[in-house]
Design goal:
6-stranded mixed beta sheet; Isoleucyl-tRNA Synthetase, Domain 1; about 900 residues; about 45% helix; 4-stranded antiparallel beta sheet; alpha+beta; single chain; Isoleucyl-tRNA Synthetase, domain 2
Length: about 900
């Protein structure tokens, strides 16, 4: 599209080998993982001979790179392959080393202690793209309230809302889960077995004394360390020992799940008796109100459960209720008088202070956990580890955040609704572990044994595209690409002559690299999936802000949805997956492209439907014959109103398609270019009765240009039949020309189209085969009234009383005032549904000779309806009007009689 508009367009391509994914995949093959090998064989179509070689991760990487390149070419992407690279190429790694040297010097790479998602097997942080599942999941901090079981033992219950300690009524323990009594940094804790394992990775010294089932605790009591009151421990099978400590305290007044669980126990006394608990003691438990929140009474959890009709803990609405209530309480709830020194404060105000106070008093601690399971590419379950002495990208740095926000301010983001999301991500991003110890990638220049992780080496690679062509062409060795060389190429720093003599790269080559970078940068568009907004795309903004001056900051970023297949997410293991190669082989490149582009736009998820793509394939085949026939026959000069209508319609299609593509609204653009324009041309041919007119042939040439970005192979084939020189993909994009609009011709044909539609609707309602159709056009006085109302509407002055006065003063209209009175409000209302552009056109065209237009179309209507056609004016005294329909005629809406 942009190339056809006359721009010099660079579309480069590279291959991201960094990280754990390739190594993990190769290891699964080496282990003989039959499930995975079956997917490679059946979904990816990997030959048996190749599969055996996948035990070598580099071989596997190169295989998929070759397959990917072939797929990219087959679908018709116009890639400049001279700039191609992989992220493990030594020349690219030199570029990444230069990048991190600069980031470290600016203070954006720091050493510290932070929680990270950790693979116990690889002994490395596990970034989003090194995960088999759990992308986007980050460590979350729980506050542990240390409730006393006895004088020497604590039950540390995990919570995000420690202020609710004042509303506790009981503890929940899973009777069937395995718990341990363990010394945690010298304190005696009871926690789940899984929690003990997790805490070992969080700078805790853990010594397990014994393990036991949770049922041992049921029926015992514990002490609230703040209020000193004692409460019972009750059975809660919903408690997940894999989440935090496996110990949950209950606040039924403010937590829907706690209220539901308590209500369930109160309604099932037999469950309690098996644990030796008196049901009456549980029946006596009442919610304790500690938070006042607008819109609720004393017990918000009870109210919302009853309001939403939630049956039990397994009702999906319980999640919805919890989220809604927690949000309201956090943002607008105030702690009541029974909340000690925090009474009267909002949750937002009190939370941090309360946590600090509790920790100082020794009644609270912390631990980190994951909100959802995360599995490494090596298939190991990940945990949270507190890493000390580790290298991080310091996205918490306020000055860096401010720079990133400045980038977003000058950045165009498609769709615009994604811009607030980017700003939110910039605000909440914190320290990011930028190195790991396994997988492929660039060694951290100053950290022996560490490799820059997957998402951290792919942030400004767009700059490397601009110079890699020269690196490859001149066979520049990695050791020649010193930091000083990149400083010159990207920043213009240093003396080029001294650089050339010191590093061995010719002055002319260095100057060419510098010149090419300046020519292409900043990049005009980076488009990627919405799942990359919280990481890759936001990292790209951060790193450009840190490394480059504002004139080289990105111009635009596009965000699209995630591809679905038959309404479901793509999963190779479930067979719900289609490869680009497979799609092109089955449907062809153009149908594949159109199927993807028509699936969705913006951040909506496109849905690949095989039936839809099959239909598109058939349509494109039909287009080939349809357009080819026109190209062959359209030779005759003709310039009737119908040709002028077609030219006008085409100009509007050009305008709409261009505007949509400029906004990356590819679905809208393709729908207009393919279907709506095709409908225009079909209508023209139906009305004309032949394809002889040269104007039609010219219209088809422009139509093919509009379709070229979507279906280039079909369009190139048809273009070759037109006799035009060169490829259509480099032909000039049609430019909207308002001088070619003929609004009168458009309105005339709109009348023919609208009248046919009204006739069809009547016939459909009457369910008859017509013998005669009679049309009545509006009298001249109605046009006078109608156009005056249109003028006033366009001017914003359409007032019924003033219009009636004006019409009453017109001598020619006085005899019709009885009919004008109901006509005026009816027309004003009808005009609200007419576009401003069309109303403006009406004022220019004035009265349309509808009688002549419909008489000219009579032969067309006769063929369409297989009936005799008659046309009269409402004022014609000799009209045939057995049912008095003529009086119903209005401008732009003739009356119709059918027999």
């Amino acid at each position: 599209f942009k190339r056809m508009q006359g721009y010099n367009v660079l579309w480069p391509w590279s291959w991201h080998w960094t990280g754990q994914p390739l190594l993990g995949a190769s290891q699964r093959v080496a282990r003989g993982d039959e499930t995975y090998i079956k997917v490679l064989r059946e979904v990816d179509g990997v030959p048996e001979a190749e599969l055996k070689k996948f035990v070598d991760p580099f071989y596997m990487a190169q295989y998929y790179t070759n397959e990917g390149r072939a797929a990219v070419k087959s679908v018709g992407f116009s890639v400049d392959w001279r700039r191609e690279f992989t992220t493990v190429m030594p020349t690219f790694q030199k570029f990444v080393e230069w990048q991190y040297k600069n980031l470290k010097e600016k203070g954006y790479v720091t050493r510290g202690t932070h929680p990270v998602v950790w693979c116990p097997k690889d002994q490395s942080p596990t970034g989003d793209h090194d995960r088999q599942s759990g992308e986007g999941v980050t460590p979350e901090e729980y506050t542990l309230i240390k409730y006393k079981l006895d004088e020497k033992t604590f039950l540390p219950a995990a919570t995000f809302r420690p202020e609710t300690i004042y509303g506790i009524t009981n503890m929940w323990i899973n009777p069937d889960a395995t718990y341990v009594e363990a010394l945690v940094n010298g304190e005696n804790w009871i926690i789940s077995q899984e929690a003990a394992d997790k805490l070992k990775e969080q700078e805790r010294k853990i010594e397990v004394i014994r393990s036991f089932k949770g049922k041992e605790l049921i029926g015992k009591t514990f002490e609230n360390p703040i209020t000193k009151l004692k409460f019972p421990i009750l059975p809660g099978w919903f408690v997940d020992p894999k989440t935090a400590t496996g110990v949950v305290y209950s606040v039924p007044a403010h937590a829907p799940y706690d209220y539901l669980a308590l209500r369930d126990l109160q309604q099932k006394p037999e469950v309690l008796t098996q644990f030796g608990i008196d049901p009456a003691s549980v029946q006596a438990i009442k919610p304790v109100s500690i938070i006042s929140v607008e819109g609720f009474g004393d017990f918000p959890a009870v109210e919302i459960v009853e309001k939403m009709g939630i049956k039990d803990q397994n009702d999906p609405k319980a999640d919805e209720a919890t989220n809604e209530l927690y949000k309201k309480e956090f943002h607008s709830g105030k702690l009541k008088a029974n909340c000690g020194p925090y009474a009267g404060k909002t949750i937002r105000e009190a939370k941090d202070t309360l946590i600090a106070d509790f920790r100082k008093a020794g009644v609270a601690d912390r631990m980190y956990d994951l909100s959802d399971p995360v599995v490494c590419r090596c298939m190991t379950q990940c945990v949270v580890k507190i890493l000390s002495d580790q290298w991080f990208l310091n996205y918490s740095e306020p000055k860096w955040k401010e720079l990133a926000h400045q980038v977003i301010c000058q950045l165009t983001i498609y769709p615009d609704s994604a811009k607030p999301w980017f700003n939110t991500v910039i605000d909440w991003l914190r320290e990011w572990a930028c190195a790991r110890t396994t997988g492929f990638g660039t060694p951290l220049p100053w950290g022996k044994g560490w490799i820059i992780e997957t998402l951290s080496d792919s942030t400004v690679y767009m700059a490397f595209y601009t110079v890699n062509k020269h690196i490859k062409q001149h066979n520049i060795k990695p050791e020649m690409l010193t930091p000083e060389v990149f400083d010159y190429v990207f920043f213009g720093k240093g003396n080029v002559t001294e650089l050339a003599s010191a590093g061995g790269i010719n002055v002319e080559v260095l100057e060419s690299m510098r010149s090419e970078f300046l020519y292409w940068y900043p990049f005009d568009l980076r488009n990627s999936a919405k799942e990359l907004v919280p990481n890759h795309l936001s990292f790209c903004i951060f790193h450009h802000a840190a490394l480059f001056p504002p004139e080289h900051w990105p111009k635009a970023i596009g965000v699209n949805g995630m591809l679905m297949v038959e309404g479901q997410g793509m999963h190779k293991s479930k067979g719900n997956f289609i490869t680009m190669k497979g799609a092109v082989e089955k449907y062809g490149a153009d149908a594949t492209r159109c199927g993807l582009l028509l699936g969705a736009e913006g951040m909506d998820d496109p849905d690949w439907r095989a039936d839809n793509v099959t239909d598109l394939k058939s349509k494109l085949e039909a287009l080939m014959g349809f357009a080819s026939n026109i190209i062959i026959t359209a030779k005759k000069d003709d310039n009737t109103a119908l040709e002028r209508w077609l030219q006008t319609r085409l100009q509007k299609r050009i305008k709409d398609v261009t505007a949509a593509l400029d906004e990356l609204k590819t679905r809208t653009a393709l729908q207009t270019a393919l279907f709506e324009t095709w409908n225009d041309i079909r209508w023209y041919i139906q009305r004309k009765g032949n394809t002889d007119a040269k104007g039609l042939g010219d219209a088809v040439k422009d139509w093919l240009k509009l379709l070229t970005p979507f279906a280039p192979f079909t369009c190139e084939e048809l273009w070759s039949q037109t006799g035009e020189e060169g490829f259509i993909s480099v032909a000039k994009w049609p430019v909207y020309d308002p001088a070619k609009l003929d609004v009168a011709a458009e309105e005339q044909e709109n009348l023919v189209i609208d009248v046919m539609g009204d006739t069809n609707n009547i016939l459909k309602a009457m369910k008859i085969a017509p013998k005669r159709v009679v049309y009545y056009t509006a009298a001249e006085w109605k046009w006078q009234v109608y156009l005056k109302i249109v003028e006033k509407t366009v001017a914003g002055e359409a007032k019924i009383n003033e219009l009636m006065k004006e019409f009453a003063s017109e001598a020619a209209l006085k005899p019709h005032m009885k009919d004008i009175a109901p006509m005026v409000p009816k027309v004003i209302k009808a005009l609200t549904k007419v576009s401003g552009e069309r109303k403006s056109n009406m004022t220019k065209i004035r009265m349309v000779d509808e009688k002549t237009i419909l008489k000219d179309a009579a032969a067309f209507y006769k063929e369409r309806f297989n009936a005799e056609i008659a046309v009269y004016s409402e004022s014609d005294p000799a009209r045939f009007d057995p049912k008095g329909r003529a009086a119903m005629a209005m401008p732009y809406q003739p009356a119709i009689y059918i027999e």
